[in-house]
Write a structure and sequence with these properties.
mainly alpha, Homeodomain-like_sf, about 60% helix, 6 helices, 2 domains, Arc Repressor Mutant, subunit A
Amino acid sequence: MEQCVNIKFCFKLGNTATETHETLVSAVSKKCVFEWFKRFRDGKEDVEDEPRSGRPPTSTTPDNIERVRRMLADDRRLSLRMIAEELKISVIRCEQHYSRTFAKA
């Protein structure tokens, strides 16, 4: 989103999409700049991305976070892989739940 704000700023300054891309070349792709310029030209002012279609994330739920917390409270020797297999979620997602559990502690 930060880059969208930068692109909007350049757009409001009257820069072209090409000039903006050259300014931000190390931070954002040319395709992205041109897509946002089109949105701004079409009158869109909001810099938030549009809602995406598709299946919503299902593993990051309060229930799963609580399940990870309970499993760890019962047995601190459990590995993230073991917890992930038990809950049928990815190890990465399990690690995120683990981090949230101990960030509160």
